[in-house]
Design brief:
Bound molecules: flavin-adenine dinucleotide
Number of domains: 3
Number of strands: 20
Shape: globular
CATH superfamily of the largest domain: FAD/NAD(P)-binding domain
Largest sheet: 7 strands, mixed
Strand order of the largest sheet: 5-4-14-15-16-13-17
Strand content: 25-35%
Oligomer: single chain
CATH architecture of the largest domain: 3-Layer(bba) Sandwich
Length: about 450
């Protein structure tokens, strides 16, 4: 039976042309006739960092699940990024070093592809593909100011009256304020988003927030890369209790090393020579090895990472039709675990599924799905953060047990490639965390080898 083509109708506006917004636009374009993506930045037509995405100057690891979804949404992405734009792809376990709790994971073939590129390259490529879709328009230099809604919702008293359906967005462009009419507005404005304020302006409650602050400071730089600098396309060195410093080095396009170093209560210096020396103080020397002799391309830059925040839109009892939130605006995760872009990609697929069931009650259905999606990376990151005594939060029995178990996983993974692979499949959001307790893995972990 031939499926009839979907009748595309209506206008969706996505606020924020970063990864979550672009991926949302990609799936919205399947059912909306018109999709407008607004961003207050100029959106450069080359792969360079921009003001609205300051994290673009720091290492961005794309998890294996994220790469798979990007490939599904933009067929040929991996091949094009590698062959035309100099990105690097290889096996995630055999060709990259993973050092957890000070234990280097055994290098083995994991059959999971790791795509390494800078964040500006990845975002620029995705933006180019999204802009080429029928019905999609980009509006750079356009700042969203608030939502516009029609009719009255179900509020009872005049002071608590809620607006009904969202049907537009107030924007500021070229010094002029206008309203863009829309059937759906999607907030993809990231960590510092104003969605809760916009809801309050319409008489709706703001979502409650869960927060945890790992107290991280990132310092990142790029270096020239030569083939014999280091044996691998990446090294990820996790902080340990005894030495709470970590970092990542990635073999990115233009034959460069992209390096991010972070400390908890200690931070990497920003002058290039001391930065390289500081890399030698990490729990393992891999990153230092890669850059010890390499000339600096971009000097170190610092960024304080704020608290990880999960806004519980799924718990709101009332929410206006015609409005959605996606990506970091729902949940901004600790970036040290590299989950943000992948979580946004999984949410985009969930949005596609929700739209396939119609537009009624979209927000409620989508937030319920997004909460299930976010729960996994959130609990993985929070559990790992709570290993460190300076991080405030509830160390439940489950948290303590998980950290005890994962520490054993890392020890065993140093010698057993299958255990390492099981860990990487979970850390890359391919498998659910329960897989680490499958009998074959648990037996090895509990035996100690
Ligand atoms: C230092 C750091 C390192 C990270 N490393 C990784 C990593 O290794 N791997 C990974 O997967 N993720 C990483 N992340 C997370 C990743 O960057 C995000 O998860 C990802 O970009 C998705 O975020 P987003 O699109 O929701 O929001 P953002 O990327 O924050 O984008 C928000 C967009 O909204 C625009 N905007 C904001 N306000 C307005 C407004 N009022 N009007 C119009 N436009 C507006 C901004 O210009 C911007 O384009 C890292 C994050 C940080 C901070």
């Amino acid at each position: 039976m031939v499926t009839p083509p979907v009748q595309r109708s209506g206008h969706a506006i996505v606020v924020g042309a970063s990864m979550a917004g672009l991926l949302a636009a990609r799936v919205l374009a399947e059912t909306f006739a018109q999709v407008t993506v607004v961003d207050r930045d100029a959106l450069p037509d080359e792969p360079i960092a921009r003001r609205g995405v300051p994290q673009g100057r720091h290492a961005h690891g794309l998890l294996a699940r994220g790469r798979e979804i990007l490939e599904e949404l933009f067929p040929g992405l991996t091949e094009e990024l590698v062959s035309r734009h100099g990105a690097v792809a290889a096996d995630i376990q055999r060709d990259a070093a993973w050092i957890n709790d000070g234990h280097p994971m055994r290098r083995d073939f994991a059959d999971m592809l790791c795509l390494v590129a800078t964040r500006p390259l990845l975002e620029w490529y995705v933006r180019d593909r999204v802009t080429a879709l029928p019905g999609v328009t980009l509006r750079p230099n356009t700042e969203a100011l608030g939502l516009v809604a029609a009719g009255n919702g179900s509020g009872t008293s005049p002071t608590r009256r809620r607006a009904g359906r969202v049907n537009g967005l107030r924007v500021l462009a070229s010094g002029e304020e206008t309203v863009l009419a829309a059937d759906l507005v999607v907030d993809a404005t990231g960590r510092s988003n104003r969605g809760p304020t916009w809801l309050a302006e319409l008489g709706y409650e703001a979502p409650t927030e869960e927060k945890i602050d790992p107290g991280l400071v990132y310092v990142s730089a790029t270096f020239e890369r030569k083939p014999d600098d280091y044996d691998g396309i990446a090294a990820v060195v996790g902080a340990t209790l005894a030495n709470p410093r970590g970092g990542v080095v990635l073999a990115v396009e233009n034959d460069q090393w992209m390096v991010t170093l972070y400390g908890m209560g200690d931070e990497a210096p920003t002058d290039a020579q001391s930065y390289v020396e500081w890399a030698a103080r990490l729990p393992r020397p891999d990153i230092h090895q890669a850059i010890a002799e390499a000339p600096v391309v971009e000097a170190p830059r610092r960024m304080r990472i704020g608290p990880s925040t999960w806004r519980r839109y799924d718990k709101l009892r009332r929410f206006p039709e015609g409005f959605l939130v996606i990506g970091d605006a729902i949940c901004a995760l600790n970036p040290a675990y590299g989950q943000g872009m992948t979580t946004a990609a999984v949410e985009a697929l969930a949005l596609r599924d929700c739209l396939a069931r119609g537009r009624r009650g979209l927000a409620k259905r989508f937030f319920a799905r997004a909460a299930k999606i976010v729960a996994i990376p959130w609990s993985v990151a929070v559990t790992a953060d709570l290993r460190f005594p300076h991080v405030q939060g509830r160390r439940t029995r489950a948290v303590r047990f998980l950290n005890w178990y994962i520490a054993r996983v890392h020890r065993v993974a140093a010698r057993d490639g299958a255990v390492g692979k099981a860990f990487l499949r979970v850390a890359n959001l391919i498998d659910p965390p329960q897989r680490l307790f499958a009998p074959a893995i648990a037996a090895k972990v509990l035996r100690g080898h």
